[in-house]
Amino acid sequence: MSAASDKIVQISDLKRNPARILDEVRKGMPVTITQGSRADAILVLRDQWAELHTRVEALEEELELRELLADPKVRQRLERGLPKRGIPLSEVRARLVPRGRTRSRRSR
Question: Are 25 and 45 in contact (CB under 8 A)?
Answer without folding.
Answer: yes
